[in-house]
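Lab notebook page, bench 4
Experiment: in silico fold of construct C2
Operator: M.H.
Input chain length: 149 residues
Purpose: comparison with the prior construct
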Amino acid sequence: MSERKIKNYLKTKYELKIYFEELNGEYVGYIQMSDSRFKVEHLLYTKKKLPSWDTLHRGGINYILEMALFDGTQSILVRQHNEKFLVLECDVDGSEPTDSYFIATPEAYKMKIAQIWEDEESEFGEHWNVLEPKALMFAGFDATQGGKS
């Protein structure tokens, strides 16, 4: 497994807004807002530009509960955590083991989750290295079944 760096940040809502507005690529993924059930218009099954911050937040009465984005190489996961937001970023190159899970939408989309493992020295000594799980990152939708089942 290749060595990679998982970046993680805790951001305020204002810092998350700046971060979100700087994401100017095209992504697949989903955005779950705090004030409603999952909306199909927040599912980016094909690569698209993100909706505007103001479109998502409707006057600031809601917030991003969870967001997972993938641009083909970088995975971004955002989760609301108390009054802040946890942001994880990791490069995903396709060599990782993946699992597919259904997403709760009217259509049966399956998302791919990449397992990120890193080589670490074993706690049992003898200078052995073992693979340790570090993160589960969104890696797009399962194309082998057309993303739907």
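Observations: The helical segments are 13-21, 53-57. The two ends are 30 Å apart (CA to CA).
Next step: discuss at group meeting.
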